[in-house]
Design brief:
This protein is an all-alpha fold. The chain contains 1 helix and no strands. It starts with a helix and ends with a helix.
């Protein structure tokens, strides 16, 4: 075998394991890339679900806030009515007491 042919043979033999290692590394890298992409897709789905849940909760908070605001307004109106009726009752009691005083002189 000539020196050139021998060198080419050795080079070819050396390239074979290097290529095999390269292919194996490439497979590992590709597997890792697929696994990362799958994880990214899972996290993206989780984020979308979380955002939908957040939006629904915000809507519910806004609805409950409106209900609470209405309830506080009703409470204030009722309190005003109670105060007014209490004052009327006091006036009525004072008038009754005054009339009773006049009658029993």
């Amino acid at each position: 075998m000539s020196q050139i042919a021998g060198a080419m043979y050795i080079s070819a033999m050396l390239d074979r394991p290097v290529l095999a290692v390269f292919n194996q590394v490439n497979e590992v890298i590709e597997h890792d890339r697929r696994a990362r992409l799958e994880r990214i897709n899972e996290l993206t789905a989780n984020l979308k679900e979380s955002e939908a849940d957040r939006a629904a909760r915000l809507e519910q908070i806004n609805e409950l806030t409106a209900i609470l605001t209405d309830s506080e307004a009703d409470h204030a109106a009722l309190l005003e009515q109670i105060t007014e009726l209490t004052n009327l009752l006091k006036e009525s009691e004072a008038d009754r007491a005054a009339r009773l005083e006049v009658i029993h002189g």
